[in-house]
Amino acid sequence: MTTFKEIRGTDILALSSDPSNPEIGQIWYNSSSGTLKGYIFATVNAWASGGALNNARQATAGFGTQTAAVAAGTAASPYLYTELYNGTSWTASGSLTAQQSYAAGAGSQTAGLIFGGGYPLPNVNRTQSFNGSTWTNVPATLNTVRRVLGSAGTQTAALAFGGYRDSPGVESGATESYNGTAWTSSPNSMNTGRYSFASFGTQTAAVAAGGNTPAYVGTTELWNGTSWTNNPTGLNTPRAYAGGAGTQTAGLAFGGYNPPTTYGSTELWNGTVWTSNPTGLATARFIYNGNAGTQTAALAFAGEPPTTATEEWTGQQLAIKTITVS
Q1: With the CA atoms of 286, 289, 295 and 298 taken in that order, what torsion angle do they form, in degrees rounded to the nearest 10?
Q2: For residues 109 and 88, what is the distance between their CA atoms, to the nearest angstrom?
């Protein structure tokens, strides 16, 4: 029989307390508690309350990570207000240069971007950049003017797709990439024009799930940097106004609306199929773009009805676990 030492190259040590900096896969015997323990991946897949926003917000653009997020703009006064999250609480930051609700966001807390939007009407093609404290209007504007559009990527490599156009009032499938200087339209639009859908990923590997076509759908499309492909399966709960986080192979969708129901339900994406999670957001809501993070550490904030609620998602994480025969 193969021993643990032959597999790992070390013995199982007897320690009086758990190590402060264990290695992945390390196993030890805690002599104080009389238990065998290990530092392994643990699946939590649950939301927990985070620090509340200072102002109830809706139609807010969000981006960043679970511990360094940005909430920019709102359809409820104060319209230009920006807040920053540090993993515990929200603080006020520099205001937007102009009102831009129902916009999309991309990037990090120190290098971010919002684009599009349209509250009040008409829609705008404005792009604003963020350096961690100050917003600046950039010369580049979207080629297709729209609101409630999807987004992915970073401040210098962003993707804008889908959305709702004012003239004529129609769902858009237009896709544009941003290189830090200019927006370039792709000749290949989404297969189904839609707005208010869950979106996440990078400029060359993005996901769009659900949305209003104007029917409320669960349809999922994948972007490879050149074109969109319909995925064989979609969200288990068809809906629009859901939040999204993660990558093209490990994503998350949460919240949303399909009349007459406002959802808190959460689904996990593995690059091929969506799996419904047993528990969802504590505060069911329309998310728009108020979200940030990854499949293992996401953040949901703001929403409609206007709310200060912030929730933190914990997925599969490294943790010290007691090892039992079961």
Answers
A1: -80
A2: 15
Please tell me the pTM assigned to this model: 0.87
Helix (H) / strand (E) element for 218: namely strand 216-223
Q: What b/e string do you get for 229-250 counting C-beta neighbours within 10 Å, with b at 16 or more? A: eebeebbebbbbbbbbbbbbeb
Q: 287: closest CA among 162, 107, 102?
A: 102
Cα radius of gyration (the chain): 21
Determine contact, residues 253/243, Cβ cutoff 8 Å: yes
What residue type is 155 in one-letter code?
Q
The domains located in the chain, with CATH, are: 4-43+317-322 (no CATH), 44-316 (2.120.10.80)
Which residues pair with residue 318 across a beta bridge?
41
> 119-141 pLDDT, tens per residue?
777 899 999 999 999 999 999 99
pLDDT tens for each residue of 37-70: 887 767 789 999 999 999 999 999 999 999 999 9
